[in-house]
Amino acid sequence: MNPAKNDPVLSVRDLAVSFETEQGRVRAVDGVSFDLPAGETLGLVGESGCGKSVTALSIMRLLPKPSGRIDAGHVHFDGLDLVGLPAERMQDIRGRRISMIFQEPMTALNPVHRIGHQLAEVFQLHFEALPAREVRSRCVQLLERVGIPAPEQRLREYPHQISGGMRQRVMIAMALAAEPDVLIADEPTTALDVTIQAQILALIADLQRSTGMSLVFITHDLGVIAEICDRVVVMYAGRVVESAPVTELFARPCHPYTRGLLASMPRLDLPPKARLTTIRGMVPDLGRMPPGCRFHNRCDETLPRCAEQPPQAVQVAPDHRVCCHRYNGGEEGVARETAP
Ligand SMILES: Nc1ncnc2c1ncn2[C@@H]1O[C@H](COP(=O)(O)OP(=O)(O)OP(=O)(O)O)[C@@H](O)[C@H]1O
Ligand SMILES: [Mg+2]
Question: What pTM does this model have?
Answer without folding.
Answer: 0.90
